[in-house]
């Protein structure tokens, strides 16, 4: 009886522990390392008390699959579409719930809708990684979702999310190339009562974007004069575009055109990162087309011809660059002449104004003297 009782107690304890463990097992959120999707996933993890597992964008790593298995989770939420996080339904054996739209904007909007209703939300431009970090910090502190917008547009999916959330207040993190007036107006049209914009130093934000682009290009750079495959040719072309956009961004920054500098720097960074991924033989979705076109060109015309065309592309960009530089110099000289004429005009205006002032002073003095004399004469005549 004693042994039987001990066995029964152990059985009950085992069942209890197993049940408690099952209840404590957190769901898993699987997401790529794309900054926008990752920020959305982090906020969702806070809301659902879930564990985050990341994988490089465009792939499902074996390490991510292993972590999900070890977690014991019975459900996995995937933030991002099959291009960002592929093969999930095949490689992961537990229940999968994918949170994904046609792009990052719609994906973030769908995730935000899981809040049902909230008093407030945070909006940020979807390609502004520095702004996304700031938005994440603000949203996390308030326990609210983030919504992604474009520079001068609030995507349709975001509009639907706003209607569902019924948010009364919205915090906007501006980007240097954002039409903040238009964005704020659109949100108010969607029923948001209070729209506040955080102060952002656009010069500093553009400078940070430039530095990020330089680092991305440095990481992806390789000898583009000696490509050996369609993969390398596709990467070389993207890298060439990235370098050109960086130069244009630097010029814009030097002219204090921070919005343009920011936009070009972001483009340069994304192109450089894409080139790096292609060199690693990862090219899902849109970037696959770049590789396919390069491979087709090599197949039809040969590798040497493809190299020559790449060099000609470099030369064309350099010539275009020289023309832009000369045009810029001509603009500067023209502006200097206009300023000189303006200064000369201001000097003439100043001289004319001085003469006019002296004349008016003379006239005022004369009038005052005449008036005084008349009064005096009147007084004397009155006597």
Structural summary, described in words:
The chain is of the alpha/beta class and about 375 residues long. The protein has three domains: about 25-100, Response regulator (Rossmann fold), CATH 3.40.50; about 105-200, Rossmann fold (3-Layer(aba) Sandwich); about 205-340, no CATH class. Helix content is about 65%, strand content about 10%. The chain contains 13 helices and eight strands. It has helices at about 1-25, 35-50, 60-70, 90, 105-110, 130-140, 155-165, 180-190, 200-220, 230-255, 260-280, 285-300, 305-380, and strands at about 30, 50-55, 75-80, 95-100, 120-125, 145-150, 170-175, 195. The strands form two sheets. A four-stranded parallel beta sheet has the order 2-1-3-4, sandwiched between helices. A four-stranded parallel beta sheet has the order 6-5-7-8, sandwiched between helices. Strand 3 (about 75-80), helix 4 and strand 4 (about 95-100) form a beta-alpha-beta unit. Helix 5 packs parallel to helix 7 (about 155-165) and helix 9 packs antiparallel against helix 10. The N and C termini lie far apart (about 145 Å).
Q: What separation lies between the terminal Cα atoms?
A: 145 Å
- The helix-strand sequence is HEHEHEHEHEHEHEHEHHHHH
Taken together, the total number of domains comes to 3
Shape: flat
Q: What is the tally of beta strands? A: 8
Summing up helix and strand content along with how strands pair, one would put the structural category as alpha/beta
Q: Hey, roughly how much beta strand do the residues contain?
A: 5-15%
What low-confidence regions span 5 or more consecutive residues with pLDDT below 50?
9-23, 362-383
Arrangement of strands in the largest sheet: 2-1-3-4
Largest sheet: 4 strands, parallel
User: What does the average pLDDT come to?
Assistant: 85
Q: What's the number of helices? A: 13
Rg over C-alpha atoms, rounded to the nearest angstrom:
33 Å
- Helix amount, in percent? 55-70%
